[in-house]
């Protein structure tokens, strides 16, 4: 049974030419490939049975030799605010998470993973705390968004935005992440401006990304404006300290003429002070950017707490006085541990108890 399963072709992993080759190899006419492509990506059906203009025999052949995707749902949680979080098991047993966030204005944003686990070890991050599993393939990254797009299509809705802010560091898995971006644009019709890649700050990749000529948005996780303090929270800072990181960000802005976003997980007493805001103001002076402040999501392996509301307000007001454009991002799915890596941790903890 397992052998048979392994021999199945994942159609999401094929491009249009490869799909045509596969369909012809099954003994079908080439035009069937176009119909199948249309069912998968335009009509967004989730089964071969739904492909109603295909002959019965074709559907049977497809069912025996191919599958639509390889992610198996392992857990699912729905938040009171409508945020939906999913944990998927990959064929080799690795677990990854993705989240769908509906917004009042009709936007539907998928937050997807680029790796199982993460090698960068940021101390406040649930994914960092679990270590590195493996890189995801482009198809595995893409499928997370595809499944949401499919589920939304079934109720007449559309996936509008995708953010690479789930598990893993997309620039540590650069080629697969970029390939997945192209798949999102070509197959799901999601505009580059509606896709955001978030990086911990891998300097060479930020420069490379700037040279790609894509309109995809870039977010950089900064969180601290002092090198030794940032290194304590984010080990990557020892390799690529703040000055080099900001240089690369300036290069990105000059090269692309695009605004860059800095993410700031506000931690009580750690990075929510007036002094910190002033230092950040100096660091980012003259850079076309936006600071996205997100109160920390507490995690099991880190004692930090979210910045209290009054400190957050003062921090933001100070940034404003320094001429920085900054907003607080509403925390989504807080009741379902929708923070990066948190569902997997919860499921593993629950397994350990059993
Ligand atoms: N590896 C990439 C993208 C995934 S993490 C990166 O680090 O940017 C997405 C965002 O969530 C990052 O800004 C990260 O710093 C932040 N994050 C991780 N753990 C968090 C937590 N416990 N609370 C708030 N933000 C967190
Ligand atoms: Fe990795 Fe990003 Fe988490 Fe850091 S914050 S450990 S880079 S996923």
Folded structure, characterized:
This protein has helices at 2-7, 16-25, 31-42, 56-65, 126-130, 138-154, 174-188, 203-210, 227-233, 236-239, 242-256, 274-283, 309-321, 342-353, and strands at 9-10, 66-67, 72-78, 84-89, 95-102, 108-111, 115-117, 132-135, 161-164, 195-199, 217-221, 260-266, 289-295, 326-328. Strand 13 (289-295), helix 13 and strand 14 (326-328) form a beta-alpha-beta unit. The longest helix is centred in the middle third of the chain and has 17 residues, at 138-154. The chain is α/β, with parallel strands linked by helices and 354 residues long. The radius of gyration is 22 Å and the shape is elongated. The strands form 3 sheets. A 10-stranded mixed sheet has the order 3-4-5-6-9-10-11-12-13-14, with helices on both faces. Strands 1-2 form a two-stranded parallel sheet. Helices cover 41% and strands 19% of the residues. The protein is built from 14 helices and 14 strands. S-adenosyl-L-homocysteine binds next to strand 10 and strand 12. S-adenosyl-L-homocysteine binds at residues 122, 124-125, 165, 169, 198-200, 221, 263, 265, 294, 296-297, 299, 339-340.
The largest β sheet comes out as: 10 strands, mixed
For the secondary structure, the number of strands is 14
Q: Helix count? A: 14
Q: For the residues shown, what is the average pLDDT?
A: 93
Instruction: Give the helices and strands as they follow along the chain.
Output: HEHHHEEEEEEHEHEHEHEHHHEHEHEH
Bound molecules: S-adenosyl-L-homocysteine, iron/sulfur cluster
**Uncertain ranges:** 1-6
The coarse silhouette is elongated
The whole-angstrom Rg is 22 Å
Strand order of the largest sheet: 3-4-5-6-9-10-11-12-13-14
Helicity level: 40-55%
Straight-line distance between termini: 28 Å
Strand % is: 15-25%
- Counting helices, strands and paired strands, the structural category is alpha/beta
């Amino acid at each position: 049974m397992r052998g048979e399963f392994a021999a199945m072709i994942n159609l999401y992993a094929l491009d249009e030419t490869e799909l045509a080759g596969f369909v012809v190899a099954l003994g079908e006419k080439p035009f069937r490939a176009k119909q199948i492509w249309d069912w998968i990506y335009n009509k967004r059906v989730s089964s071969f049975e739904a492909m109603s203009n295909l002959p019965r025999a074709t559907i049977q052949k497809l069912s025996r030799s191919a599958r639509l995707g390889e992610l198996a749902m392992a857990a699912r949680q729905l938040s009171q605010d409508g945020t939906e979080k999913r944990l998927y098991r990959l064929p080799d047993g690795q677990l990854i998470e993705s989240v769908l966030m509906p917004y009042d204005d009709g936007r539907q944003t998928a937050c997807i993973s680029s790796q199982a686990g993460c090698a960068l070890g940021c101390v406040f991050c649930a994914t960092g705390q679990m270590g590195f599993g493996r890189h995801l393939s482009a198809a595995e990254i893409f499928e997370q968004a595809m499944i949401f797009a499919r589920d939304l299509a079934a109720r007449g809705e559309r996936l509008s935005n995708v953010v690479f802010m789930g598990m893993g560091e997309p620039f540590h898995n650069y080629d697969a992440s970029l390939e997945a971006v192209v798949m999102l644009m070509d197959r799901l019709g999601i505009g580059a401006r509606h896709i955001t890649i978030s990086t911990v700050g891998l300097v060479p990749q930020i420069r490379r990304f700037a040279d790609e000529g894509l309109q995809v948005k870039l977010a950089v996780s900064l969180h601290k404006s002092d090198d030794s303090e940032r290194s304590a929270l984010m080990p990557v800072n020892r390799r690529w300290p703040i000055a080099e990181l900001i240089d690369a960000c300036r290069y990105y802005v000059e090269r692309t003429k695009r605004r860059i976003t800095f993410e700031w997980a506000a931690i009580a007493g750690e990075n929510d002070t007036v002094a910190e805001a002033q230092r950040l103001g100096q660091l980012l002076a003259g850079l076309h950017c936006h600071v996205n402040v997100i109160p920390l999501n507490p995690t099991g392996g880190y004692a930090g707490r979210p910045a209290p509301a009054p400190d957050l307000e003062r921090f933001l007001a100070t940034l404003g006085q320094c001429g920085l454009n900054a907003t607080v991002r509403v925390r989504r799915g807080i009741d379902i541990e929708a923070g990066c890596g948190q569902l997997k941790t919860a499921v593993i903890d629950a397994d350990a108890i059993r």
